[in-house]
């Protein structure tokens, strides 16, 4: 699938892949940390007959540029908003996987024209607090005001951060097998391509800083007070999450399901890890078809 480019007013050049039925509903796909639009290719090929699909390399990832460092996922949402206006996807559904879910929520809070928001294995509304306890967390619950503070701790605590910095494909392969694809067998050649895409990210540290600042709930999450921006999201939200996710705690979405928040649907999948679109592809696609029809 051909990679194309759009040029934004802030000087960034964002790469994207676009395919599908131009008469069908539109879906914008946003990837997470250590990823790119390439991660959505199997899903896009499965859905291309019925949907018009746009997968974007977020700033600093894949083939996109990184001229201006980010401090928040909201800044990435501003990029995506300009992008969808350029490409005619303002009335689309937005789908975000992992950290891309945070960008999708920020975008939905900004754009009332969106038809729906789909969160796949996504960071929770309370951000930092939704990470599994086995994932990297700072040793003290505090906000970081400077990148150098975060960088100092990341070097000591995050083995995958070191792997990306050193372009250590062997170590990244171990990390992927342990955390990302733990419940799904991936073709070896495809796994090599995923890891190659992960190594293209130039702003891992900045995404972690954005994580520590993201909280659209109404609660304090241990680091950041909730902004309550979830209230600005008017479109319906569909949450699809694996019960065996080793990165983001599915309990964070179980709590929302129990509260029966008005515009949010939650579907939790057994035998499913951090990447529902791989582990439970048919069930995930079926749920998307029911939601975005």
From TrEMBL:
Tell me the GO BP annotations in alphabetical order: acylglycerol catabolic process
Presence of keyword Hydrolase: yes
Q: Which PANTHER family match?
A: MONOACYLGLYCEROL LIPASE (PTHR43798), MONOACYLGLYCEROL LIPASE ABHD6 (PTHR43798:SF5)
Q: What GO annotations for molecular function exist for this entry? A: monoacylglycerol lipase activity
Keywords tagged on the record: Hydrolase
Keyword Hydrolase annotated = yes
Q: What Gene3D superfamilies does its record include?
A: alpha/beta hydrolase
Q: Which GO cellular component terms, listed alphabetically, does the Swiss-Prot or TrEMBL entry include? A: membrane
Q: Which SUPFAM superfamilies match?
A: alpha/beta-Hydrolases (SSF53474)
Entry-linked InterPro entries: AB_hydrolase_1, AB_hydrolase_fold, AB_hydrolase_sf
> What is this protein called in UniProt?
Alpha/beta hydrolase
Domain named AB hydrolase-1 is located at 27-279
């Amino acid at each position: 699938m051909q990679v194309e480019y759009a040029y934004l007013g802030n000087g960034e050049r964002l790469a994207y892949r676009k395919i599908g039925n131009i008469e069908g509903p539109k879906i914008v796909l946003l990837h997470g940390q250590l990823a790119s639009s390439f991660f959505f290719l199997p899903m896009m090929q499965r859905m291309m007959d019925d949907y018009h699909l746009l997968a974007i390399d977020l700033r600093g990832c894949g083939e996109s540029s990184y001229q201006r460092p980010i401090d928040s996922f909201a800044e990435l949402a501003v990029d995506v908003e300009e992008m969808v206006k350029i490409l005619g996807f303002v009335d689309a559904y937005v789908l975000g996987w992992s950290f891309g879910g945070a960008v999708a929520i920020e975008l939905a809070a900004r754009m009332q024209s969106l038809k729906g928001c789909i969160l796949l294995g996504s960071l929770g509304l309370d951000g930092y607090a939704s990470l599994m306890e086995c994932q990297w967390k700072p040793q003290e619950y505090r906000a970081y005001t400077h990148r150098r503070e975060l960088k100092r701790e990341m070097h000591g605590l995050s083995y995958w951060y070191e792997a990306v910095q050193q372009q250590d494909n062997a170590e990244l392969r171990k990390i992927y097998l342990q955390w990302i694809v733990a419940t799904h067998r991936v073709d070896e050649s495809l796994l090599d391509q995923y890891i190659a895409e992960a190594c293209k990210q130039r702003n891992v540290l900045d995404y972690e800083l954005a994580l520590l600042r993201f909280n659209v709930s109404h609660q304090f999450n241990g680091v950041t007070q909730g902004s309550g921006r979830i209230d600005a999201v008017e479109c319906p939200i569909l949450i699809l999450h694996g019960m065996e996710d080793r990165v983001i705690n599915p309990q964070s979405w179980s709590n929302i399901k129990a509260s029966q928040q008005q515009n949010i649907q939650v579907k939790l999948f057994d035998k499913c890890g951090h990447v529902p679109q791989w582990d439970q592809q048919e069930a995930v696609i079926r749920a998307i078809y029911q939601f975005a029809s």
